[in-house]
Design brief:
Belongs to the major facilitator superfamily. Bcr/CmlA family. The protein is mostly helical and 406 residues long. The chain has 15 helices and no strands. The protein has one domain: MFS general substrate transporter like domains (Growth Hormone, Chain: A, Up-down Bundle), CATH 1.20.1250. It is globular and about 55 Å long.
Length: 406
């Protein structure tokens, strides 16, 4: 299923001895697992700590805020000091924060530990993107991320199901113990097998003047926005389902809690399919055409979801199919967006990756807020949000193409 008809992209000769792709997959898996592994425990957390559901939701929103903000710092740090030391310190923080989550006696400590966990997780994701730029030829970067994303999709595919079983068997703390073990394994692999890939260290990357210069350089590039804008909106479209699917499936449509993980996993399998299709399309049509196809799929998925709801179809399968299609479109959009936003900046790869990640998390935070605020006990708000985002993704790609045509 994970095989590719074309040859796997190989790292540059100086990194051929290291399992770069496997390490990148391990880094990228931390983000979805940090959220999905404990989704099934959210109702139990409210009961254990005696707090309303809105307080428990802070463990999600604070993670997003911490993850988004840290990207503005971690990227430049890796540009100055190198990928390896920043990554090791970040993973060590993640291990410690996960253990603190597992031992938290109050919801306040859990929320604070989740913020710390986000900082460590952020280092893994940002540096994974930067390492792709460092260790692979620019022509291969989108294929590398698409290949990694195919494996990455296994995390949100199995995470909620595994988390459900951990919750039933051992309670909510088990998910964070599992994250501690996983991140410790990844840290050990980095120490033993990851070489330094930043050969263009910039001693001024963290100086305020140099930092502002790098930010202006990256943010002033049309190529950066041509990829970041649809990528952030595409991530927002899947975050609408991440934050809203449990509400509509369990509360509105009456899906049993123990079956929610399977519904979520089926929807996420669309992302796996999308990344596999992306890997087939990139060699044949190139990144730009692949992004156009993906944005068209985003528009179609949102429009079909809203149309079905408007016609009165209120069934769990409508939500799951809409989620599958949206995730599939994201599997095409996001690998191209990630690689395209970093590739033009060999000396500011960390800064570009950090800015892209911060913008993506800002979009996710905004979408999650809208989904929570507009929930009214029906499917319509979620469907309307998904459709609006599909329109915006489609328009952003065409708008930038139109401006760049001359």
């Amino acid at each position: 299923m994970m095989s590719d008809h074309s040859a796997a992209p190989r790292p540059l000769a100086e990194y051929g001895h290291a399992p770069i792709l496997l390490l990148i997959i391990g880094f990228m898996m931390l983000q979805p697992l940090s959220t999905d592994l404990y989704l099934a425990s959210l109702p139990n957390l409210a009961t254990v700590f005696g707090v309303p559901a809105s307080t428990v939701q802070l463990t999600l929103s604070v993670f997003v805020i911490g993850f988004g903000g840290a990207q503005l710092i971690i990227g430049p740090l890796s540009d100055r000091y190198g990928r390896r030391p920043v990554l090791m310190w970040g993973l060590a923080l993640y291990v410690a924060a996960s253990l603190l989550c597992a031992s938290a006696q109050t919801i306040q400590v859990l929320v604070a530990a989740r913020f710390m966990q986000a900082l460590g997780c952020c280092s893994a994701i940002i540096i994974a993107r930067a390492i792709v730029r460092d260790a692979y030829a620019p022509a291969d970067s989108a294929r590398v991320i698409a290949r990694a994303s195919s494996w990455l999709s296994l995390a949100p595919l199995t995470g909620p199901i595994l988390g459900s079983y951990l919750q039933v068997a051992f309670g909510w703390r088990a998910a964070f113990v599992a994250l501690s073990i996983l991140s410790a394994i990844v840290l050990g692999a980095v120490i033993m097998r990851l070489p330094e890939t930043n050969v263009h260290k910039n001693p001024r990357a963290t100086e305020l003047r140099g930092l502002m210069a790098n930010y202006r350089h990256v943010l002033g590039s049309r190529a950066f926005w041509a990829h970041v804008l649809p990528g952030a909106l595409s991530y927002g479209s899947i975050f609408a389902f991440i934050s809203g699917s449990s509400l509509v499936l369990i509360r509105v449509l009456g899906v049993p809690t123990q079956l929610f993980g399977y519904c979520f996993a089926f929807g996420v399998s669309g992302y796996l399919c999308g990344t596999i299709v992306c890997r087939r399309l990139l060699p044949r049509f190139g990144p730009s055409a692949t992004l156009r196809i993906g944005s068209t799929m985003s528009l179609a998925a949102g429009a079909l979801f809203l149309g079905a709801v408007a016609l009165g179809f209120a069934h769990w399968s409508v939500v799951v199919v809409a989620m599958f299609l949206t995730m599939g479109a994201h599997g095409l959009n996001f690998p191209v967006s990630q690689s395209g936003s970093v590739t033009p900046f060999p000396q500011q790869a960390g800064t570009a990756a950090g800015l892209m990640g911060a913008i993506v998390m800002l979009a996710a935070f905004g979408v999650g807020t809208i989904v929570g605020a507009t929930f009214d006990g029906t499917l319509f708000p979620l469907a309307a949000t998904a459709c609006a985002l599909g329109v915006c993704i489609f328009a952003s790609v065409r708008l930038v193409e139109h401006k760049e045509a001359p």
